[in-house]
Amino acid sequence: MKQSKLSASLLALSLLLASGALAGTSNKGTLKVGETVTVSGKQLPAGTYEVEWAGSGPDVELSISDGSETLAKVPAQIVPQAKAQPQSGYATSADQSGNKALTEIFFGGKKYVLSIGGASAATAASSDQSKSNN
């Protein structure tokens, strides 16, 4: 009897750990930029970056890294979409000097967009905003 309780407890623990691991991987993605973009005052040259976000609700903290070190941390919002994105990519807005700031990241097959900077991303829709696909 004790052995079956121990087995059941171990099974429940392993299922709990597995579900936690799966939940953790859903807050990660890859960002491929084909141009230099600015995030939180830091320039990211063209390349592939890892993105990860943490937080509850629509407001999250977004971390962008090159795989070995975190390059930028910015507040972001998870914005639900009516349908899944057809492919991964990002959106930028350009200032008067032509510098491009990262405003959105989207992932193929996902029904949300990560909006960076909140109000500035919404304002970018009325200014010079462009989208790029990975």
Comma- or semicolon-separated keywords:
2 helices; single chain; two-stranded antiparallel ribbon; alpha+beta; 22% helix; globular; 134 residues
Provide a brief overview of the structure.
The chain is built from two helices and ten strands. It is of the alpha+beta class and 134 residues long.
What would you say this structure looks like, in words?
With about 130 residues, the protein is of the alpha+beta class. It has one domain (about 25-134). The chain is built from two helices and ten strands. A hairpin with a 4-residue loop joins β5 and β6. The chain is globular.
Secondary-structure blueprint of this entry?
Blueprint: H1 2-25, E1 28-33, E2 37-39, E3 42-44, E4 47-54, E5 59-65, E6 70-80, E7 89-94, E8 100-106, E9 112-116, H2 119-124, E10 129-133
Antiparallel strand pairs: 1-4, 2-3, 4-5, 5-6, 6-9, 7-8, 7-10, 8-9
Count of discrete structural domains? 1
Record field, number of beta strands: 10
Biggest sheet character:
8 strands, antiparallel
- Structural class call reads alpha+beta
- Globally, the shape reads globular
Helix content: 10-25%
Element string (H = helix, E = strand): HEEEEEEEEEHE
Q: Strand order, biggest sheet? A: 1-4-5-6-9-8-7-10
Radius of gyration: 19 Å
Question: How many alpha or pi helices?
Answer: 2
Low-confidence stretches: 6-25, 119-128
End-to-end distance:
56 Å
Strand fraction: over 45%
- Arithmetic mean pLDDT: 79
